[in-house]
Specification:
single chain; 158 residues; alpha+beta; Arc Repressor Mutant, subunit A; Alpha-Beta Plaits; 2 domains; 4-stranded antiparallel β-sheet; 4 strands; elongated
Length: 158
């Protein structure tokens, strides 16, 4: 799908104001309601808009810890990668996982109640023999920046 300036503006507005009404979105991007909704529908159908969600202030819900884990696998075969990637899908505490090029194979973001529950998760992964050879734990001590909108101007060269 080729994006024009209006599509990019729709994406920009939604990436910072996800709960905006369709009418307000149309007004913000300078379109009438029907053409704006049609563009929005096409962006969703093309998979450019993957979904909508809320950023939750976890600190207001109760104790929690965010941990980043750099993981290295025993084997570097396609089957080993598939096994590990399938296993992380079964743990809700693993909120993000990226395959990496370079020194480590994966970077995982884990959010859980405390360090003890984090360690139980790691023990579960090790006992399941999903190919985890080594892992390095990095506990987040405070958030500095995160959850922001992607830099569409930079990404699209605009």
């Amino acid at each position: 799908m080729k994006l024009d300036a209006r599509d990019i503006e729709i994406l920009r507005v939604l990436s910072t104001h996800g709960r905006i009404t369709k009418a307000a979105l149309a007004e913000r991007v300078g379109l009438s309601a029907s053409p704006c909704w049609e563009r929005l529908r096409k962006l969703e159908e093309a998979g450019i808009i993957e979904g909508y969600g809320a950023r939750i202030a976890l600190r207001k819900l109760g104790p929690h810890v965010t941990v980043f884990v750099a993981a290295e696998l025993h084997d570097h075969t396609a089957a080993a990668f598939r096994l590990f990637e399938a296993s992380v899908q079964h743990h809700d505490e693993i909120v993000a996982c990226w395959a990496l090029g370079g020194g480590f194979d994966y970077l995982l973001q884990i959010v859980t109640r405390d360090i003890d529950s984090y360690q139980r998760l790691v023990d579960t992964l090790l006992e399941a023999r999903v190919g985890l050879a080594r892992y390095f734990t990095y506990v987040v001590t405070k958030p500095v920046k995160g959850g922001g909108a992607p830099p569409l101007d930079v990404l699209l060269g605009g």
